[in-house]
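Hey, weird one. I pasted the Ankyrin repeat-containing domain protein sequence into the form twice and got a warning about non-standard characters only the second time. First submission, copied straight from the form history:
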Amino acid sequence: MARIRTTQRQMDTVTCRILPWEVPDRAGTSRPWCRNENAEADNGDSPLHSASCGKYKSQEDGVRIVRLFLERGMDVNRKRNDHCTPLHVASYCGKVEIVRLLLECGARVDVGASTGAIPLHSVSWGEYESQEDGIHVARLLLERASDVNARGKDKWTPLHAAAYYGKPEIVRLLLDHSAEANSEADNGDTPLHLVSRGKYEPPEDGVRVARLLLERGADVNKQRHNDQCTALHSASYWGKIDVVQLLLEDGARTNVEASTGATPLHSVSWGEHGSQEDGVRIGRLLLEHGADVNAKAKSGQTPIDSATRNQRFKLAQLLLENAVIFHAQRPRAS
């Protein structure tokens, strides 16, 4: 790498003008980074951390600044208070060329933050301008032998993170690099459990992730070891209608019981979904696939009891209608 000759005054000027925020002293007037490029923010951020996720007019501007700091001798693997390195930060922000530069300058792909997360976790739950940026960053990390099945302290792998945040192309890339589709977190969550209650928009992203996982061998009926819930319990509770439909089409069992005795029909009856109509749609899907409207949890509650207690009146009406039909169809004793 060609060295850039820079005076201390030039460095101070660049640091003050380019970084995305300033760090005042107690008086609120000084700017420590303008005096010392090795100063830290309250969270331990160095200028290199900040520059690794800066807001630049072009990627080239960001690369120039990061290169400038590295040429001044900043530690490429320096950790802030949460033990994140600049590579964690750049990966989270999808800064492809900055990630490339950090790797070329010796950034380690296996450094764990205080949560145990490595940079591959960071890009798997990151926020970036385009999905393509995230894919490029993940590919760069994997090319440097980043552990695709690395676990944080909660036992989440990068695949857990990408599934929860609905990143289908990163999920595909991780699976292509032998990520374990049925890996379990501390509480027994698999990636399929997580996409069934994840945070993502649009909903189609969740369906794409779930389909990829199922195609690569995810167990549609796997139960979490802490509460025996399946992905169908989770998707029903959280109102993930399209994921519910996909799970059912793939053979999800509608009457499997959690440790409380609750079935997925119980889950939707007390769940958190967008509207009464969403609950009705999920309830109808479950009933069409054989859900027992009269199933009792260990508390003795049926789905009708739960729906009524939780003021899911439209769902309660649907369940009640099906309970009446069920009783009408039962053979009478002679």
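That's the output from the first submission. The warning seems to come from a hidden character in my clipboard, not from the data itself. Residues 313-329 form the longest helix (17 residues).
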